[in-house]
């Protein structure tokens, strides 16, 4: 207690007054990082921990042949609240498809952004309650069996825009606004 008292300038007994929470600021860079089976390169982030909040802003790294940049804000006061803001550029969708267990299903380059929040007593609940919106676009790609979709559309009575050409799985651009809520994913404007 004498040692604590010497550095605190007062009694070693707990104080009834509260001051500002201690603030910890860490700048982290790493040429390589691995988490949950994902390998990233050129990780850069600033971590701020103050009171019951932890923030990574910015957080940026290379993954799936492209770049991710965003921020994560976690508040642990009464229950865990997390907010994520993200931008991705030039991700290789074939690498992403391989990682997701569907090699060769889709290819192209992905660009997009989104904002998401979730709340709960643990990380599983936070993920289950996640809500948010994103805008995504894939360019210069292919989707395995995309020509079958065209066949079904023609069968249902729509004119085939490529009636004179051969069936193809290739596309120039696919884009969509995607909403995440209530444990599901929804898009009403895929083009």
How would you portray this structure in words?
The chain is an alpha+beta fold. The chain has helices at 2-8, 93-99, 123-128, 146-155; strands at 23-35, 38-50, 53-63, 66-75, 80-92, 106-120, 131-143, 170-181, 184-186. The longest helix is centred in the C-terminal third of the chain and has 10 residues, at 146-155. The protein is elongated and about 70 Å long.
Give me some keywords for this one.
191 residues, single chain, nine-stranded antiparallel β-sheet, elongated
The main pleated sheet reads as: 9 strands, antiparallel
Strand-residue proportion = over 45%
Number of strands: 9
Oligomer: single chain
Total number of helical segments? 4
Mean pLDDT, nearest integer?
86
Shape: elongated
Indicate the low-confidence ranges by residue numbers: 1-13
Secondary structure: elements and pairs:
Layout lengths: L1 H7 L14 E13 L2 E13 L2 E11 L2 E10 L4 E13 H7 L6 E15 L2 H6 L2 E13 L2 H10 L14 E12 L2 E3 L5
Antiparallel strand pairs: 1-2, 2-3, 3-4, 4-5, 5-6, 6-7, 7-8, 8-9
């Amino acid at each position: 207690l004498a040692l604590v008292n010497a550095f605190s300038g007062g009694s070693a007994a707990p104080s009834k007054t509260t001051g500002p929470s201690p603030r910890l600021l860490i700048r982290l860079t790493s040429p390589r990082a691995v988490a949950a089976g994902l390998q990233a390169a050129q990780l850069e982030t600033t971590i701020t921990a103050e009171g019951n909040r932890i923030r990574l802003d910015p957080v940026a790294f290379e993954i799936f042949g492209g770049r991710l940049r965003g921020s994560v804000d976690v508040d642990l006061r009464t229950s865990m609240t997390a907010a994520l803001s993200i931008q991705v550029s030039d991700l290789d969708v074939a690498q992403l498809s391989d990682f997701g267990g569907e090699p060769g299903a889709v290819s192209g380059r992905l660009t997009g952004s989104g904002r998401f929040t979730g709340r709960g007593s643990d990380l599983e609940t936070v993920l289950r309650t996640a809500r948010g919106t994103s805008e995504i676009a894939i360019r210069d790609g292919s989707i395995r069996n995309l020509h079958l979709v065209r066949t079904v559309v023609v069968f249902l009575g729509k004119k085939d825009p490529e009636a004179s050409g051969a069936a193809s799985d290739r596309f120039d651009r696919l884009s969509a606004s995607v909403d995440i809520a209530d444990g599901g994913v929804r898009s009403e404007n895929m083009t």
